[in-house]
TrEMBL record:
The keyword Cell division does not apply. GO terms for molecular function: glutathione dehydrogenase (ascorbate) activity; glutathione transferase activity. It catalyses: RX + glutathione = an S-substituted glutathione + a halide anion + H(+). PROSITE patterns: GLUTAREDOXIN_2, GST_CTER, GST_NTER. Keywords: Oxidoreductase, Transferase. GO terms for cellular component: cytoplasm. Residues 2-80 form the GST N-terminal domain. This is glutathione transferase. It comes from Aerosakkonema funiforme FACHB-1375.
Amino acid sequence: MAEVEIYSASVCPFAHRTRLTLLEKGVDFKLTEIDLKNKPDWFISISPYGKVPVIKHGDNTVWESAIINEYLDEVFTEPPLLPKDAGERALARIWIDFANTKFVPAFYNLRINEEREKQQESAQTLHSHLLFMEKEGIAKLSGNGPYWFGESLSLVDLSFYPWFERFPILEHYRSFALPSECVRLRQWWEAMSNRESVQAIKNTPDFYIEQYLQYANNTTTGITAQEMRLA
């Protein structure tokens, strides 16, 4: 019997984070795929926010991907996905927060803004965030290692990666690519792309380009998109 049940959607980068965490932990899990355009009535009883991912583990139901991932790291202790040192662990949480509050909203805003002027503003914001991640993040913390904290994979890597797999959306619909200055981020992206867990659930660029058409023309009715419009 599976130790964890995860309610997920292949198109969702937040759920992608948690599926990767489960795979990296080697946790046996049952996957329940949710059609986000036609969610079953019973789903709200499991997910109070109406979003994926949600996990069930024993008597516990946990939602919100960053919280789920820390829960999984605490419950399934090997391999550890947060640094042991308290200061480094705090830095990891700072960068996870940066992903959630800075990088992800900028990524979404560039996708959903149709007006040329707003697209340019969003592109500039995302460009600035990526340079900040390059210079103040991975370049300072990784040493010579391939991952955010060096040789060891962490929840920081898993928090950012799903949006990089979706970068073809921005390239296709908004002509936005990873800045050339982001050398270490590009190396990290390649290292992440080659991980067994990533390869196991990887989708093609064409899959994302098709799935995110409604984001590009701002007609999506997804909860996250609605929240981003109001932010």
